[in-house]
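Progress against Task 2.4 (sequence-to-structure conversion) is shown through the following example record, which the project officer requested during the mid-term review.
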Amino acid sequence: MDGVNGYVEVPNSPSINVGTGSFSTSMWLRYEGNGSLDSWAVEGILIDKREANNPGYCFYLKPKTLGLQLYANLQATAIIEDGKWHHIVVTVERDSTTEVKLYMDGTVIQTFPSTVFATNLNNNATFKVGHSSTPAGHGFLKASVDDVRLYKRALTEAEIRQLYGVSGAACTEWNLAKDFRMSPNQENPNRDSCGNKDVWHFLQSGDFKHDPQTYTLMPNFSTSSRYDGTAGIHNWTGTEIPDVTVYKTEKDFIYPNATTLADYVYMHPGWNHLTIVGWRSPINGNVKVSGEIASQYTKGGGGCGSLTGDGIKWYIDKGATTLVSGAFPNQGSQDFQEGTIGSSLTSIPVKQGEFIYFIIDRNDNAFCDATKLDVTISQVGAAETAVCPAVATIRSVADGNWSDPNTWDLGRVPNENDVVQIEPDTTVVAGFSEVAGLCNFGTLTGENSDLRVNAADFIYNTGTIKAADAKDSECRAKNNPTLYKHPSQLSAGNSVFLWTDNFVNEGEIAGGRGGDDSTWTCLSDSDAGKWSYPVISTDGMIRLHKSGKGTWGLQWGETQYGFPSVGGDGGKVEIRPVTFTNKGTIKGGKGGYGDSSSGSPGSDWGDGVHGVSIGGKGGEVIITPADLEQSGNQGILQGGCGGDADIPGCWATTDIFCNDTTDSKALANPSRPGNGGNVTFNATDMSGVIRGCRGSISYWDPTTLKATATTRFEGSEFTDVKAG
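Structure tokens generated for the chain above:
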């Protein structure tokens, strides 16, 4: 920026209007003190989006210190004019006791109290860098500026350190009371002290079963206690009594009138619901859980203090499995270890995204069941914390389609300049996507087409990336050709294609499964849903016989032609990076199942099939790093398993298609399992596993399996051969 007439201007759009929400700005700045900045309107404008007589936001230098205007001026004291590059961030958290923070080089240099107006900051002005948006012609900046960013949320300290290039220490201990952040007011789920998103959840159950599928976030929020109306209380409540109560403080939960135990959370079970605090692990490793659970009330003083009641039950679950449980009467308490069997809380293995639940049950009734929860979770030994190589510019907030703005925190679809982060426990469905970088901690999957991602800088995966499976196939009924689909060799699994400079996988990547082809399960096009059974004809095709009525409902009916039963091929995984590191599993899709085996036994005429069953081919894995020296496999690369094949046999010797001279046709015909998919890979580090996988063989016969001297059964460790 030359200080004369140079600036950058971005047209007005919803993406740069922050409304009443939290937001952050970030940039690199080199300023040498070019003259005296007597007024911010002369040379010091960094970012400006204001218009006359309307609120907006402006970030500036005045004269050599940082300032911010949000319809009111906030001025820092730190001087920045040494001619060196500095990383500058301002975060604005609405409804926070410390709402505005200024950072320089990863460290907070000044904070401002919540006197900033909660005004809607939307306007029609353009977004300018290096020039005032009003009045025109003033405020040209003379400085060097780089990597200007606007976030429609408050960045965490961990994210700011990461932007600056310092990762900082990861959390090794989590205490619910001290971790809790009041900003924004209604943040449920809540972050931990390191800024990891969605760690603490305040939940209720759909019933009294310990089924995480029925757990939902408490839907209602208030800022007064339902107990005594005390101001400053933060209540998350369920559909009836269940709640979690929080006193408004930056550090601890403090229940009103409590003089001790400031590190407790207060919970109350419902008549028909469990009250639950969930901790979602931000690490892969082991953790120890310690703490105490106690009645809120002490004896005496009237009310619940004079009652004994029936007390409460409590549980600590990992997922749907109870680790520890206990119970005590009103006015009682228990250390977690009192309910512990052995050392079940001293070293609990967890993966990123897994939950540990702290559950309060009303016992027989919910009278006087307000309960204090004090819990600390500590990391045991080393852990690997999944951290995106770059700060995400857009994150998933719900299950949904990549092209749906509601899937993302910014309310828009990611573009080629974004670093995209898919959060744990969210599933995003995509087709072709082009981005700057991708961090997948959740699930990225295709739907009805191949899954393709072109990430200019990097792809980092600790979750699951998987192409969609093919649909299974059935035969086509003669008189209703749209009723059933066949053959499945036209139904291959979808593939995964990934292009990037730097690729790291610590999770699982897989091609889609090929479609199964179960010809013998074809239904008749006649009424009452009668079955049809395939029988090989003299011309090598499978005939489908429509059943009539008789013993077991099986008689010869109208005949039509079908196809040999062939499973669809598995989808492949193709990765074309510059550098490649795999510590997880990458595998091709499994081939589909081929099955033209016999129909139901016990008919008055017997039923046998000598049709052709062919398993689909397993999907390939193709990895071609450009830099072999900086690439390696320390995990598993597996070609897709070939599809299984069911070799048809005979149900009864009376069947004209199954007698002493023809039953060996089951082995003479070309039925076979699918071949495993190839693995193509080369790098300097080949310390991991590369695996092939042929499909399995199944043979069904009521007596014996007949084979000749030339009969071969081929497979891998997954082979399953059954006879008799």
